[in-house]
Amino acid sequence: MKCYFDTCGAAIENAAETKTFGFYYSENKNQNQEVHIHDCCEIFLCITGGNSFLIDDKVYEISDGDLFLINQFEAHKVVPDDRELFCRHIMHVHPSFLYANAVGDISLSDCFYSSGKVTQISLSTDEIKKLTALFEAIRTDYGYGDEMYKKLRALEILLEISRLSSTHRDHCSKEFSHKTIQLAIDYINRNYSSDLTLEAVAKNAFVSPNQLSRLFNRYCGTTVTKYIISKRITEAKKLLASGRSVTETAFMCGFNDYANFIRTFKKAVGVPPGKYGAGKN
User: Fold this and answer.
1) CA-to-CA distance for 263 and 279, rounded, in angstroms?
2) Contact of 23 with 11, CB cutoff 8 Å
3) In this predicted structure, what is the pLDDT of residue 279?
4) Is residue 23 situated within a structural domain?
5) In which domain, by residue range, is 54 found?
6) Residue 105: C-alpha distances to residues 22, 102, 108, 111, 162 (Å)
7) Class of residue 82 by CB neighbours under 10 A (exposed 0-12, middle 13-18, buried 19+)
8) For residue 174, what pLDDT is reported?
């Protein structure tokens, strides 16, 4: 059973097509990666070389051994530290696999969706070793029963993630504390349905447009405009999944041009909005 892939995109594609999971390990920096969103949940274990992680409406500082849990409605982008090797294990898992493997009072989906979910967990040395060993076990060719063994290993990882999420419930994430960046993000999140401009966001963050652009690129690894688009697409996915029509969704998410919404959504998500979730034209 092939479940470890050479690219993050291939791991996501496998998880989405098979409704199961896909794994990826890399030491490359992938500096050209944009803010993105996909239809799988993501487990991201940073071994070394992370700098910051933009997830939905927050920026997190990364330390070696930090674990991040991201659901399919959270746009995200990681920024590596240029001075170090950027080593990380990533697991993409389809929500259907999480729900199908709930047992008793243990729901593997809670750590991705519960109201008190923890996005960032700083692991101890022993926890890092245990989780890394579980990730490495997925690479093994078990021969007889290979597919079953790999599904068992994947479930072991998810059960360990569920345990970590529960035991670290009171953990305080290392949210980025740059006041200007947070003011800009808060303003965008309150006004994404309006006709936002770089100038308007900068004004409400009390800096010039050029200064805000430099700060966003440095700390978030993206532009203000791309963050606005990712926020709108994130909210659009939620609305479409809840049954809103494509037309309603476009208007509610600040897309005044219907054709532009169709084009932008398909580029970001992979399918047109009319075929996503419960959305109807």
Assistant:
1) 16
2) yes
3) 44
4) yes
5) 4-167
6) 26, 8, 10, 13, 12
7) exposed
8) 57
Name which of 46, 73, 74, 39 is nearest 61 in CA terms: 46
The winner for highest mean pLDDT among 91-100, 107-116, 177-186, 269-278 is 91-100
* Residue of 112, 120, 25 lying closest to 66 (CA atoms): 120
Positive or negative: CA dihedral 133, 136, 140, 142: positive
For residue 214, the SS3 value is: helix
Q: Among residues 118, 135, 167, which one ends one of the domains?
A: 167
Q: Is there a contact between 62 and 219 (Cβ–Cβ < 8 Å)? A: no
Q: Structure tokens of 129?
A: 């070793």
Which is higher by pLDDT, 106 or 225? 225
- Return the beta strands (E) in 58-150 as ranges: 58-61, 66-70, 76-80, 87-93, 120-122
Tokens found for residue 180? 């200007």
Residue 138 backbone phi and psi in degrees, to 5: -65, -25
Using one digit for the tens of pLDDT, what is the confidence trace for 231-262? Answer: 999 899 999 988 999 999 999 999 989 999 99
DSSP 209: H
Backbone φ, ψ for residue 184 (5° rounding): -65, -45
What's the CA gap between 186 and 58, in Å, rounded?
A: 9
What are residue 22's DSSP bridge partners?
Answer: 92
Tally of domains within the chain: 2
| DSSP-derived secondary structure letter, 175 | B
The pair of structure tokens assigned to 202 is 């900068």
Residues 154, 188: one domain? no
Phi and psi at 54, nearest 5°, equal -90, 115
The answer as to whether 11 is a domain residue is yes
